[in-house]
Amino acid sequence: MGTLFLQSSPRFELPSMIAGLPDAFSSLSFGREQSISLVDSLSTSSMDSFLVLGQMGKWMPTFATPIWVLSIGLLLGVLMAAVAYGVLAILSFVPALGTIADRPRQGVTLSLIAGAIFSAILCVIYLPQGGDNRQLLLLPLITIGVGLGFGFIYGMWHRTRDEWFSMLTEGVVPYLLGTAAVFAVLGLVLTPFVENPRGILESIPSVNVMSDGTQVEVATIDPASSDEPEFFAAGIEYNFRNVAELTIESDKKVFLADSADPAAFSRSPVELNPGSSEAIKYRYQDREQPPIPGDPGKLHIYNQEIDPARVVFTFKNLPQIPQASSIVFIAIIFFLTLTALMATRQAAPRVWALALSTAKNEMAQPLYLLLLALGIFGVLLFGIFPFNTLGDDIRLLKDSGVTLIMIMGMLLAVWSAGTSVSEEIEGRTALTVLSKPVSRRSFILGKYTGIMLSVLVLFVILSAVLLVVLSYKPIYDARETSEKLPVWQVGHEEIMTTLPVLGLYFMETMAIGGVAVALATRLPLLANFITCFSIYVIGNLTSPLVASAKENTELVGFVGKLIAVVVPNLNSFNVQAAVDSGNAVPLIYLAGVFNYLVVFVIAVWMLAMLLFEDRDLA
Q1: 3-state secondary structure string, 247-271?
Q2: Quick one: signal sequence residues (predicted)?
Q3: Span 159-180, average pLDDT
Q4: Domain range enclosing 594
Q5: For residue 387, what pLDDT is reported?
Q6: Shortest CA distance to 443 belongs to which of 371, 505, 329, 355?
Protein backbone atom coordinates (compact mmCIF):
# COMPACT_ATOMS: atom_id res chain seq x y z
CA MET A 1 0.00 0.00 0.00
CA GLY A 2 2.82 2.36 0.92
CA THR A 3 4.57 1.85 -2.49
CA LEU A 4 1.39 2.53 -4.46
CA PHE A 5 0.75 5.62 -2.41
CA LEU A 6 4.33 6.76 -3.02
CA GLN A 7 3.97 6.32 -6.78
CA SER A 8 0.69 8.21 -6.95
CA SER A 9 1.80 11.16 -4.76
CA PRO A 10 4.53 13.37 -6.21
CA ARG A 11 5.11 14.90 -2.79
CA PHE A 12 6.78 11.68 -1.65
CA GLU A 13 9.15 11.25 -4.63
CA LEU A 14 12.89 11.39 -3.92
CA PRO A 15 14.39 14.84 -4.19
CA SER A 16 16.41 15.47 -7.30
CA MET A 17 19.45 16.32 -5.21
CA ILE A 18 19.85 12.61 -4.33
CA ALA A 19 20.68 11.86 -7.92
CA GLY A 20 23.50 14.38 -7.82
CA LEU A 21 25.27 13.04 -4.76
CA PRO A 22 28.99 12.55 -5.13
CA ASP A 23 30.23 9.17 -6.27
CA ALA A 24 32.00 8.71 -2.95
CA PHE A 25 28.65 8.00 -1.33
CA SER A 26 27.82 5.25 -3.81
CA SER A 27 29.96 2.85 -1.75
CA LEU A 28 27.48 3.12 1.10
CA SER A 29 25.04 0.96 -0.94
CA PHE A 30 22.31 3.55 -0.46
CA GLY A 31 20.67 3.03 -3.85
CA ARG A 32 17.29 4.11 -5.14
CA GLU A 33 15.62 0.88 -4.03
CA GLN A 34 16.75 1.34 -0.43
CA SER A 35 15.69 4.98 -0.49
CA ILE A 36 12.21 4.11 -1.72
CA SER A 37 11.97 1.40 0.94
CA LEU A 38 13.04 3.90 3.62
CA VAL A 39 10.51 6.52 2.52
CA ASP A 40 7.88 3.78 2.22
CA SER A 41 8.45 2.70 5.83
CA LEU A 42 8.43 6.30 7.02
CA SER A 43 5.17 7.06 5.23
CA THR A 44 3.61 3.85 6.61
CA SER A 45 4.66 4.69 10.17
CA SER A 46 3.31 8.22 9.73
CA MET A 47 0.00 6.85 8.55
CA ASP A 48 -0.09 4.48 11.52
CA SER A 49 0.61 7.38 13.86
CA PHE A 50 -2.20 9.42 12.33
CA LEU A 51 -4.54 6.45 12.67
CA VAL A 52 -3.60 5.99 16.33
CA LEU A 53 -4.12 9.70 17.02
CA GLY A 54 -7.43 9.56 15.17
CA GLN A 55 -8.60 6.62 17.27
CA MET A 56 -7.48 8.36 20.46
CA GLY A 57 -9.39 11.45 19.40
CA LYS A 58 -12.55 9.37 19.21
CA TRP A 59 -12.37 7.61 22.58
CA MET A 60 -10.45 10.13 24.67
CA PRO A 61 -13.54 12.31 25.43
CA THR A 62 -15.34 9.22 26.71
CA PHE A 63 -12.41 8.41 28.98
CA ALA A 64 -11.41 11.91 30.02
CA THR A 65 -14.76 13.50 30.87
CA PRO A 66 -15.71 11.31 33.89
CA ILE A 67 -12.25 11.77 35.42
CA TRP A 68 -12.40 15.51 34.75
CA VAL A 69 -15.79 15.76 36.47
CA LEU A 70 -14.43 14.09 39.61
CA SER A 71 -11.30 16.25 39.56
CA ILE A 72 -13.43 19.40 39.39
CA GLY A 73 -15.32 18.09 42.42
CA LEU A 74 -12.04 17.73 44.33
CA LEU A 75 -10.95 21.24 43.34
CA LEU A 76 -14.33 22.61 44.40
CA GLY A 77 -13.89 20.84 47.75
CA VAL A 78 -10.50 22.50 48.18
CA LEU A 79 -12.07 25.86 47.37
CA MET A 80 -14.89 25.27 49.88
CA ALA A 81 -12.40 24.35 52.62
CA ALA A 82 -10.16 27.32 51.81
CA VAL A 83 -13.05 29.79 51.93
CA ALA A 84 -14.68 28.32 55.05
CA TYR A 85 -11.54 28.00 57.13
CA GLY A 86 -10.12 31.21 55.72
CA VAL A 87 -13.14 33.05 57.14
CA LEU A 88 -12.78 31.19 60.45
CA ALA A 89 -9.06 32.07 60.53
CA ILE A 90 -9.98 35.75 60.15
CA LEU A 91 -12.50 35.41 62.97
CA SER A 92 -9.80 33.86 65.15
CA PHE A 93 -8.15 37.28 65.42
CA VAL A 94 -11.10 38.40 67.51
CA PRO A 95 -9.90 37.71 71.09
CA ALA A 96 -13.22 36.37 72.32
CA LEU A 97 -13.41 33.88 69.43
CA GLY A 98 -9.74 32.99 68.97
CA THR A 99 -9.36 31.83 72.57
CA ILE A 100 -12.69 30.08 72.80
CA ALA A 101 -11.11 26.61 72.79
CA ASP A 102 -8.12 27.33 75.03
CA ARG A 103 -9.85 25.40 77.79
CA PRO A 104 -10.61 21.86 76.52
CA ARG A 105 -13.83 21.42 78.47
CA GLN A 106 -15.19 24.74 77.26
CA GLY A 107 -14.19 23.99 73.66
CA VAL A 108 -15.91 20.61 73.66
CA THR A 109 -19.04 22.01 75.31
CA LEU A 110 -19.38 24.85 72.83
CA SER A 111 -18.67 22.45 69.96
CA LEU A 112 -21.51 20.22 71.09
CA ILE A 113 -23.85 23.22 71.31
CA ALA A 114 -22.85 24.35 67.81
CA GLY A 115 -23.19 20.76 66.63
CA ALA A 116 -26.72 20.61 68.02
CA ILE A 117 -27.61 23.76 66.07
CA PHE A 118 -26.11 22.41 62.84
CA SER A 119 -27.83 19.06 63.39
CA ALA A 120 -31.21 20.75 63.87
CA ILE A 121 -30.77 22.73 60.67
CA LEU A 122 -29.78 19.63 58.68
CA CYS A 123 -32.69 17.64 60.08
CA VAL A 124 -35.18 20.37 59.19
CA ILE A 125 -33.84 20.50 55.63
CA TYR A 126 -33.24 16.84 54.82
CA LEU A 127 -35.51 14.72 57.03
CA PRO A 128 -38.65 15.52 54.98
CA GLN A 129 -36.85 14.19 51.89
CA GLY A 130 -36.43 10.75 53.48
CA GLY A 131 -40.04 9.76 52.97
CA ASP A 132 -41.18 6.75 54.97
CA ASN A 133 -37.60 5.93 56.04
CA ARG A 134 -36.72 9.40 57.25
CA GLN A 135 -35.78 8.10 60.70
CA LEU A 136 -32.75 6.40 59.15
CA LEU A 137 -31.34 9.83 58.26
CA LEU A 138 -31.44 11.07 61.84
CA LEU A 139 -28.13 9.63 63.13
CA PRO A 140 -26.09 10.45 59.97
CA LEU A 141 -27.37 14.04 60.00
CA ILE A 142 -26.59 14.39 63.71
CA THR A 143 -23.10 13.00 63.12
CA ILE A 144 -22.46 15.46 60.30
CA GLY A 145 -23.88 18.30 62.38
CA VAL A 146 -21.66 17.50 65.37
CA GLY A 147 -18.62 17.29 63.08
CA LEU A 148 -19.48 20.71 61.63
CA GLY A 149 -19.90 22.05 65.16
CA PHE A 150 -16.43 20.91 66.18
CA GLY A 151 -15.03 22.20 62.90
CA PHE A 152 -16.66 25.58 63.45
CA ILE A 153 -15.45 26.09 67.04
CA TYR A 154 -11.96 24.69 66.57
CA GLY A 155 -11.64 26.33 63.16
CA MET A 156 -11.79 29.70 64.95
CA TRP A 157 -9.13 28.66 67.45
CA HIS A 158 -5.93 30.68 67.16
CA ARG A 159 -3.85 27.49 67.41
CA THR A 160 -5.67 26.02 64.42
CA ARG A 161 -4.83 29.11 62.40
CA ASP A 162 -1.15 28.72 63.27
CA GLU A 163 -1.02 24.95 62.78
CA TRP A 164 -2.75 24.49 59.43
CA PHE A 165 0.52 23.87 57.60
CA SER A 166 1.69 21.24 60.08
CA MET A 167 -1.78 19.67 60.01
CA LEU A 168 -1.67 19.23 56.25
CA THR A 169 1.84 17.78 56.29
CA GLU A 170 1.70 15.29 59.14
CA GLY A 171 0.64 11.67 59.38
CA VAL A 172 -1.72 10.26 56.78
CA VAL A 173 -3.03 13.64 55.60
CA PRO A 174 -0.30 14.15 52.93
CA TYR A 175 -1.08 10.73 51.46
CA LEU A 176 -4.79 11.52 51.23
CA LEU A 177 -4.23 14.99 49.83
CA GLY A 178 -1.50 13.72 47.53
CA THR A 179 -3.79 11.09 46.02
CA ALA A 180 -6.50 13.70 45.53
CA ALA A 181 -3.97 16.08 43.96
CA VAL A 182 -2.70 13.45 41.51
CA PHE A 183 -6.27 12.61 40.49
CA ALA A 184 -7.13 16.32 40.10
CA VAL A 185 -4.00 17.01 38.03
CA LEU A 186 -4.82 14.03 35.79
CA GLY A 187 -8.27 15.47 35.21
CA LEU A 188 -6.90 18.93 34.41
CA VAL A 189 -4.35 17.47 31.98
CA LEU A 190 -7.22 15.76 30.15
CA THR A 191 -9.20 19.02 29.86
CA PRO A 192 -8.56 19.44 26.09
CA PHE A 193 -10.34 16.13 25.49
CA VAL A 194 -13.34 16.83 27.75
CA GLU A 195 -16.75 16.96 26.11
CA ASN A 196 -18.61 20.21 26.78
CA PRO A 197 -16.68 21.34 29.87
CA ARG A 198 -18.33 24.75 29.83
CA GLY A 199 -21.80 23.24 29.92
CA ILE A 200 -20.85 21.02 32.87
CA LEU A 201 -19.47 23.99 34.82
CA GLU A 202 -22.54 26.10 34.04
CA SER A 203 -24.75 23.31 35.41
CA ILE A 204 -23.13 23.36 38.87
CA PRO A 205 -25.20 26.30 40.23
CA SER A 206 -28.37 24.37 39.32
CA VAL A 207 -27.47 21.36 41.46
CA ASN A 208 -30.06 20.70 44.16
CA VAL A 209 -28.24 20.75 47.50
CA MET A 210 -30.95 21.93 49.87
CA SER A 211 -33.87 20.07 48.29
CA ASP A 212 -34.73 17.26 45.91
CA GLY A 213 -35.44 19.70 43.10
CA THR A 214 -39.23 19.61 43.36
CA GLN A 215 -40.91 22.98 42.71
CA VAL A 216 -44.66 23.44 43.01
CA GLU A 217 -46.31 26.48 41.45
CA VAL A 218 -50.06 27.19 41.67
CA ALA A 219 -51.90 29.47 39.27
CA THR A 220 -55.45 30.65 40.04
CA ILE A 221 -57.23 31.60 36.82
CA ASP A 222 -60.47 33.54 36.79
CA PRO A 223 -63.18 32.64 34.29
CA ALA A 224 -63.61 34.67 31.12
CA SER A 225 -65.71 37.84 31.46
CA SER A 226 -67.31 37.32 28.04
CA ASP A 227 -68.21 34.57 25.68
CA GLU A 228 -64.93 34.99 23.86
CA PRO A 229 -61.88 33.00 25.08
CA GLU A 230 -59.84 35.16 27.41
CA PHE A 231 -56.28 34.07 28.28
CA PHE A 232 -54.84 35.32 31.58
CA ALA A 233 -51.17 35.35 32.57
CA ALA A 234 -50.31 32.38 34.78
CA GLY A 235 -48.05 34.47 36.99
CA ILE A 236 -45.67 31.64 37.97
CA GLU A 237 -41.88 31.41 37.84
CA TYR A 238 -39.78 28.55 36.49
CA ASN A 239 -36.57 27.92 34.60
CA PHE A 240 -37.39 25.44 31.87
CA ARG A 241 -33.72 24.82 31.07
CA ASN A 242 -33.47 22.79 34.29
CA VAL A 243 -36.84 21.02 34.11
CA ALA A 244 -36.43 17.25 33.93
CA GLU A 245 -40.07 16.36 34.63
CA LEU A 246 -43.31 18.35 34.73
CA THR A 247 -46.80 17.45 35.87
CA ILE A 248 -49.76 19.82 35.33
CA GLU A 249 -53.09 19.26 37.09
CA SER A 250 -56.25 21.34 37.20
CA ASP A 251 -59.64 21.22 38.90
CA LYS A 252 -61.34 22.87 35.89
CA LYS A 253 -61.09 22.53 32.16
CA VAL A 254 -58.43 24.97 30.96
CA PHE A 255 -56.29 25.68 27.90
CA LEU A 256 -52.56 26.49 28.06
CA ALA A 257 -51.20 28.91 25.47
CA ASP A 258 -48.05 30.93 24.83
CA SER A 259 -49.71 34.33 24.36
CA ALA A 260 -52.70 36.36 25.48
CA ASP A 261 -53.63 37.13 21.89
CA PRO A 262 -54.88 34.14 19.86
CA ALA A 263 -53.50 35.75 16.73
CA ALA A 264 -49.98 35.56 18.22
CA PHE A 265 -50.09 31.85 19.11
CA SER A 266 -47.06 29.96 17.84
CA ARG A 267 -48.93 26.70 18.33
CA SER A 268 -52.36 25.45 19.27
CA PRO A 269 -53.35 25.73 22.96
CA VAL A 270 -52.97 22.58 25.06
CA GLU A 271 -56.20 21.29 26.57
CA LEU A 272 -56.18 20.18 30.21
CA ASN A 273 -59.20 18.47 31.75
CA PRO A 274 -59.88 18.24 35.50
CA GLY A 275 -58.78 15.21 37.52
CA SER A 276 -55.46 13.59 38.29
CA SER A 277 -56.04 10.98 35.59
CA GLU A 278 -56.12 13.77 32.99
CA ALA A 279 -52.88 15.36 34.20
CA ILE A 280 -50.30 16.39 31.62
CA LYS A 281 -46.94 14.74 32.17
CA TYR A 282 -43.74 15.78 30.44
CA ARG A 283 -40.22 14.32 30.65
CA TYR A 284 -37.22 15.96 29.08
CA GLN A 285 -35.63 12.64 28.17
CA ASP A 286 -38.59 11.81 25.89
CA ARG A 287 -37.61 14.74 23.67
CA GLU A 288 -41.24 15.76 23.17
CA GLN A 289 -42.52 19.30 22.73
CA PRO A 290 -43.05 20.95 26.16
CA PRO A 291 -46.69 21.71 27.02
CA ILE A 292 -45.78 25.23 28.21
CA PRO A 293 -43.49 27.91 26.73
CA GLY A 294 -39.93 28.24 27.88
CA ASP A 295 -40.51 31.85 28.94
CA PRO A 296 -42.81 31.93 32.01
CA GLY A 297 -43.96 35.41 31.02
CA LYS A 298 -45.60 33.99 27.90
CA LEU A 299 -47.63 31.33 29.70
CA HIS A 300 -51.33 32.23 29.56
CA ILE A 301 -54.32 30.12 30.58
CA TYR A 302 -57.95 30.21 29.49
CA ASN A 303 -60.52 28.98 32.03
CA GLN A 304 -63.51 27.63 30.14
CA GLU A 305 -65.75 27.17 33.19
CA ILE A 306 -67.61 29.69 35.35
CA ASP A 307 -65.63 29.19 38.59
CA PRO A 308 -61.97 30.05 39.19
CA ALA A 309 -59.57 27.29 38.15
CA ARG A 310 -56.67 26.08 40.27
CA VAL A 311 -53.82 24.85 38.06
CA VAL A 312 -50.93 23.11 39.83
CA PHE A 313 -47.53 22.87 38.14
CA THR A 314 -45.09 20.38 39.70
CA PHE A 315 -41.57 20.79 38.34
CA LYS A 316 -38.71 18.36 38.91
CA ASN A 317 -35.64 20.51 38.40
CA LEU A 318 -32.25 19.00 37.63
CA PRO A 319 -29.08 20.53 36.19
CA GLN A 320 -29.02 20.72 32.42
CA ILE A 321 -26.21 18.19 32.60
CA PRO A 322 -27.27 15.96 35.55
CA GLN A 323 -23.76 14.57 35.99
CA ALA A 324 -22.73 17.95 37.40
CA SER A 325 -24.40 16.87 40.66
CA SER A 326 -21.48 14.52 41.31
CA ILE A 327 -19.13 17.52 41.38
CA VAL A 328 -20.97 18.99 44.37
CA PHE A 329 -21.23 15.55 45.99
CA ILE A 330 -17.46 14.97 45.75
CA ALA A 331 -16.75 18.49 47.02
CA ILE A 332 -18.95 17.98 50.10
CA ILE A 333 -17.31 14.61 50.88
CA PHE A 334 -13.85 16.17 50.60
CA PHE A 335 -14.82 19.10 52.83
CA LEU A 336 -16.38 16.88 55.50
CA THR A 337 -13.36 14.54 55.50
CA LEU A 338 -10.93 17.42 55.98
CA THR A 339 -13.15 18.84 58.72
CA ALA A 340 -13.27 15.50 60.54
CA LEU A 341 -9.48 15.17 60.46
CA MET A 342 -8.94 18.73 61.72
CA ALA A 343 -11.58 18.47 64.45
CA THR A 344 -10.20 15.15 65.72
CA ARG A 345 -6.67 16.52 65.86
CA GLN A 346 -7.60 19.69 67.72
CA ALA A 347 -10.30 18.34 70.04
CA ALA A 348 -8.57 15.07 70.99
CA PRO A 349 -4.81 15.70 70.71
CA ARG A 350 -3.76 12.62 72.71
CA VAL A 351 -5.92 10.25 70.71
CA TRP A 352 -4.73 11.90 67.48
CA ALA A 353 -1.06 11.65 68.44
CA LEU A 354 -1.44 7.96 69.26
CA ALA A 355 -3.42 7.42 66.04
CA LEU A 356 -0.77 9.12 63.91
CA SER A 357 2.00 7.09 65.53
CA THR A 358 0.07 3.87 64.90
CA ALA A 359 -0.75 4.79 61.30
CA LYS A 360 2.84 5.74 60.45
CA ASN A 361 4.21 2.55 61.96
CA GLU A 362 1.77 0.38 60.03
CA MET A 363 2.29 2.20 56.75
CA ALA A 364 6.05 1.75 57.11
CA GLN A 365 5.70 -2.05 57.26
CA PRO A 366 6.62 -4.10 54.15
CA LEU A 367 3.19 -5.77 54.29
CA TYR A 368 1.52 -2.42 53.65
CA LEU A 369 3.50 -1.81 50.47
CA LEU A 370 2.91 -5.42 49.42
CA LEU A 371 -0.86 -5.12 49.84
CA LEU A 372 -0.84 -1.80 48.02
CA ALA A 373 1.16 -3.20 45.10
CA LEU A 374 -0.98 -6.34 44.88
CA GLY A 375 -4.13 -4.25 44.98
CA ILE A 376 -3.00 -1.93 42.18
CA PHE A 377 -1.84 -4.88 40.07
CA GLY A 378 -5.10 -6.74 40.65
CA VAL A 379 -7.29 -3.75 39.73
CA LEU A 380 -5.31 -3.10 36.54
CA LEU A 381 -5.44 -6.79 35.66
CA PHE A 382 -9.21 -6.91 36.12
CA GLY A 383 -9.48 -3.99 33.70
CA ILE A 384 -8.02 -5.96 30.79
CA PHE A 385 -8.97 -9.48 31.87
CA PRO A 386 -11.56 -11.03 29.51
CA PHE A 387 -14.35 -12.32 31.75
CA ASN A 388 -16.28 -13.59 28.70
CA THR A 389 -19.66 -12.65 30.15
CA LEU A 390 -21.30 -11.44 26.91
CA GLY A 391 -21.45 -7.77 27.82
CA ASP A 392 -21.27 -7.90 31.65
CA ASP A 393 -17.48 -7.62 31.97
CA ILE A 394 -17.70 -4.19 33.55
CA ARG A 395 -19.99 -5.45 36.31
CA LEU A 396 -17.58 -8.25 37.11
CA LEU A 397 -14.78 -5.69 37.11
CA LYS A 398 -16.67 -3.62 39.68
CA ASP A 399 -17.48 -6.65 41.81
CA SER A 400 -13.94 -8.02 41.67
CA GLY A 401 -12.32 -4.62 42.17
CA VAL A 402 -14.28 -3.53 45.25
CA THR A 403 -14.02 -7.02 46.77
CA LEU A 404 -10.24 -7.02 46.29
CA ILE A 405 -9.95 -3.60 47.91
CA MET A 406 -12.08 -4.75 50.85
CA ILE A 407 -10.01 -7.91 51.34
CA MET A 408 -6.77 -5.91 51.29
CA GLY A 409 -8.24 -3.49 53.82
CA MET A 410 -9.41 -6.27 56.15
CA LEU A 411 -6.06 -8.05 56.01
CA LEU A 412 -4.32 -4.82 56.89
CA ALA A 413 -6.77 -4.06 59.73
CA VAL A 414 -6.46 -7.48 61.38
CA TRP A 415 -2.69 -7.60 60.92
CA SER A 416 -2.28 -4.07 62.31
CA ALA A 417 -4.45 -4.90 65.32
CA GLY A 418 -2.22 -7.86 66.09
CA THR A 419 1.08 -6.03 65.64
CA SER A 420 0.03 -2.69 67.10
CA VAL A 421 -2.12 -3.79 70.06
CA SER A 422 -1.35 -7.40 70.91
CA GLU A 423 2.42 -7.24 70.45
CA GLU A 424 2.67 -3.91 72.30
CA ILE A 425 0.81 -5.42 75.24
CA GLU A 426 2.96 -8.54 75.23
CA GLY A 427 6.15 -6.53 74.74
CA ARG A 428 5.33 -4.15 77.59
CA THR A 429 5.37 -1.18 75.21
CA ALA A 430 1.77 -0.38 76.09
CA LEU A 431 2.81 0.06 79.73
CA THR A 432 5.22 2.80 78.68
CA VAL A 433 2.51 4.58 76.70
CA LEU A 434 -0.01 4.33 79.53
CA SER A 435 2.52 5.67 82.03
CA LYS A 436 2.05 9.02 80.29
CA PRO A 437 -1.23 10.96 80.69
CA VAL A 438 -3.02 8.53 78.34
CA SER A 439 -5.96 6.53 79.66
CA ARG A 440 -6.78 2.99 78.58
CA ARG A 441 -9.83 4.29 76.76
CA SER A 442 -7.69 6.75 74.80
CA PHE A 443 -5.19 3.97 74.09
CA ILE A 444 -7.81 1.68 72.51
CA LEU A 445 -9.51 4.53 70.68
CA GLY A 446 -6.21 5.89 69.37
CA LYS A 447 -5.07 2.47 68.18
CA TYR A 448 -8.36 1.85 66.39
CA THR A 449 -8.32 5.33 64.81
CA GLY A 450 -4.74 4.91 63.62
CA ILE A 451 -5.46 1.50 62.10
CA MET A 452 -8.51 2.85 60.30
CA LEU A 453 -6.53 5.84 59.01
CA SER A 454 -3.94 3.54 57.45
CA VAL A 455 -6.74 1.45 55.95
CA LEU A 456 -8.37 4.65 54.64
CA VAL A 457 -5.20 5.60 52.77
CA LEU A 458 -5.10 2.11 51.23
CA PHE A 459 -8.76 2.38 50.25
CA VAL A 460 -8.34 5.85 48.73
CA ILE A 461 -5.31 4.94 46.61
CA LEU A 462 -6.78 1.67 45.31
CA SER A 463 -10.17 3.30 44.75
CA ALA A 464 -8.58 6.07 42.68
CA VAL A 465 -6.94 3.45 40.45
CA LEU A 466 -10.23 1.55 40.18
CA LEU A 467 -12.12 4.69 39.13
CA VAL A 468 -9.63 5.39 36.36
CA VAL A 469 -9.94 1.79 35.15
CA LEU A 470 -13.75 2.02 35.28
CA SER A 471 -13.64 5.12 33.12
CA TYR A 472 -11.69 3.24 30.44
CA LYS A 473 -13.40 -0.15 30.73
CA PRO A 474 -16.48 0.68 28.57
CA ILE A 475 -14.14 1.87 25.81
CA TYR A 476 -12.00 -1.26 26.11
CA ASP A 477 -15.03 -3.55 25.91
CA ALA A 478 -16.44 -1.67 22.90
CA ARG A 479 -13.14 -1.92 21.04
CA GLU A 480 -12.76 -5.60 21.87
CA THR A 481 -16.28 -6.41 20.57
CA SER A 482 -16.11 -3.94 17.64
CA GLU A 483 -19.15 -2.09 18.93
CA LYS A 484 -19.93 1.62 18.86
CA LEU A 485 -18.02 3.67 21.40
CA PRO A 486 -20.23 4.55 24.39
CA VAL A 487 -20.89 8.10 25.52
CA TRP A 488 -18.97 9.46 28.49
CA GLN A 489 -22.07 9.31 30.68
CA VAL A 490 -21.74 5.51 30.73
CA GLY A 491 -18.33 5.60 32.41
CA HIS A 492 -19.49 8.32 34.77
CA GLU A 493 -22.49 6.26 35.85
CA GLU A 494 -20.30 3.23 36.49
CA ILE A 495 -18.02 5.35 38.68
CA MET A 496 -20.82 6.98 40.65
CA THR A 497 -22.55 3.65 41.30
CA THR A 498 -19.23 2.22 42.55
CA LEU A 499 -18.49 4.95 45.10
CA PRO A 500 -21.37 3.97 47.48
CA VAL A 501 -20.25 0.33 47.28
CA LEU A 502 -16.72 1.33 48.27
CA GLY A 503 -18.21 3.28 51.17
CA LEU A 504 -20.17 0.24 52.33
CA TYR A 505 -17.15 -2.04 52.11
CA PHE A 506 -15.04 0.48 54.05
CA MET A 507 -17.71 0.46 56.76
CA GLU A 508 -17.55 -3.35 56.79
CA THR A 509 -13.78 -3.10 57.17
CA MET A 510 -14.33 -0.73 60.10
CA ALA A 511 -16.58 -3.33 61.74
CA ILE A 512 -14.04 -6.13 61.33
CA GLY A 513 -11.26 -3.76 62.43
CA GLY A 514 -13.16 -2.98 65.63
CA VAL A 515 -13.53 -6.69 66.36
CA ALA A 516 -9.82 -7.24 65.65
CA VAL A 517 -8.75 -4.44 68.02
CA ALA A 518 -11.04 -5.74 70.78
CA LEU A 519 -9.74 -9.29 70.43
CA ALA A 520 -6.13 -8.10 70.20
CA THR A 521 -6.29 -7.06 73.85
CA ARG A 522 -6.44 -10.77 74.78
CA LEU A 523 -5.49 -12.88 71.75
CA PRO A 524 -2.22 -13.16 69.81
CA LEU A 525 -2.03 -12.40 66.10
CA LEU A 526 -2.72 -15.89 64.71
CA ALA A 527 -5.71 -16.52 66.96
CA ASN A 528 -7.03 -13.09 66.10
CA PHE A 529 -6.76 -13.86 62.38
CA ILE A 530 -8.64 -17.13 62.73
CA THR A 531 -11.37 -15.59 64.88
CA CYS A 532 -11.90 -12.60 62.61
CA PHE A 533 -12.03 -14.86 59.56
CA SER A 534 -14.66 -17.02 61.25
CA ILE A 535 -16.68 -13.95 62.22
CA TYR A 536 -16.48 -12.66 58.64
CA VAL A 537 -17.76 -15.94 57.19
CA ILE A 538 -20.54 -16.40 59.75
CA GLY A 539 -21.44 -12.69 59.64
CA ASN A 540 -22.12 -12.86 55.91
CA LEU A 541 -24.36 -15.90 56.52
CA THR A 542 -26.35 -14.37 59.39
CA SER A 543 -29.36 -13.31 57.31
CA PRO A 544 -29.71 -16.71 55.55
CA LEU A 545 -29.36 -18.48 58.93
CA VAL A 546 -32.14 -16.41 60.49
CA ALA A 547 -34.36 -16.91 57.45
CA SER A 548 -33.84 -20.67 57.40
CA ALA A 549 -34.31 -20.93 61.18
CA LYS A 550 -37.94 -19.85 60.90
CA GLU A 551 -38.84 -23.06 59.10
CA ASN A 552 -37.05 -25.42 61.53
CA THR A 553 -37.47 -26.49 65.14
CA GLU A 554 -37.36 -24.09 68.06
CA LEU A 555 -33.83 -25.17 68.98
CA VAL A 556 -32.52 -24.44 65.49
CA GLY A 557 -34.35 -21.13 65.49
CA PHE A 558 -32.88 -20.21 68.87
CA VAL A 559 -29.36 -21.00 67.70
CA GLY A 560 -29.83 -18.98 64.53
CA LYS A 561 -31.13 -15.95 66.45
CA LEU A 562 -28.32 -16.30 69.01
CA ILE A 563 -25.74 -16.22 66.24
CA ALA A 564 -27.46 -13.15 64.78
CA VAL A 565 -27.17 -11.38 68.15
CA VAL A 566 -23.57 -12.35 68.93
CA VAL A 567 -22.06 -12.17 65.43
CA PRO A 568 -22.40 -8.95 63.42
CA ASN A 569 -24.71 -9.05 60.44
CA LEU A 570 -22.09 -8.31 57.80
CA ASN A 571 -24.58 -9.18 55.09
CA SER A 572 -25.95 -5.65 55.53
CA PHE A 573 -22.74 -4.28 54.00
CA ASN A 574 -22.87 -6.70 51.08
CA VAL A 575 -24.55 -5.22 48.00
CA GLN A 576 -23.21 -7.66 45.45
CA ALA A 577 -26.71 -8.22 44.08
CA ALA A 578 -27.04 -4.50 43.34
CA VAL A 579 -23.62 -4.43 41.67
CA ASP A 580 -24.39 -7.50 39.54
CA SER A 581 -27.73 -6.07 38.42
CA GLY A 582 -26.25 -2.66 37.68
CA ASN A 583 -28.51 -0.85 40.16
CA ALA A 584 -27.36 2.13 42.20
CA VAL A 585 -27.26 1.86 45.98
CA PRO A 586 -29.73 4.44 47.40
CA LEU A 587 -28.41 6.91 49.92
CA ILE A 588 -31.12 5.93 52.39
CA TYR A 589 -29.61 2.44 52.47
CA LEU A 590 -26.20 3.92 53.22
CA ALA A 591 -27.77 5.82 56.09
CA GLY A 592 -29.30 2.65 57.52
CA VAL A 593 -26.01 0.76 57.34
CA PHE A 594 -24.22 3.71 58.96
CA ASN A 595 -26.65 3.50 61.87
CA TYR A 596 -25.86 -0.18 62.30
CA LEU A 597 -22.11 0.49 62.10
CA VAL A 598 -22.21 3.18 64.80
CA VAL A 599 -24.15 0.96 67.20
CA PHE A 600 -21.91 -2.02 66.49
CA VAL A 601 -18.63 -0.09 66.87
CA ILE A 602 -19.80 1.38 70.18
CA ALA A 603 -20.70 -2.11 71.43
CA VAL A 604 -17.32 -3.49 70.32
CA TRP A 605 -15.50 -0.57 71.95
CA MET A 606 -17.29 -1.30 75.23
CA LEU A 607 -16.29 -4.96 74.88
CA ALA A 608 -12.70 -3.93 74.25
CA MET A 609 -12.70 -1.82 77.39
CA LEU A 610 -14.04 -4.74 79.44
CA LEU A 611 -11.29 -6.98 78.09
CA PHE A 612 -8.54 -4.40 78.47
CA GLU A 613 -9.51 -2.68 81.73
CA ASP A 614 -8.29 -5.46 84.00
CA ARG A 615 -5.48 -6.67 81.71
CA ASP A 616 -2.20 -6.87 83.61
CA LEU A 617 0.36 -4.96 81.54
CA ALA A 618 3.27 -5.48 83.91
Answers
A1: EEEECCCEEEECCCCHHHCCCCCEE
A2: none
A3: 91
A4: 349-617
A5: 66
A6: 355
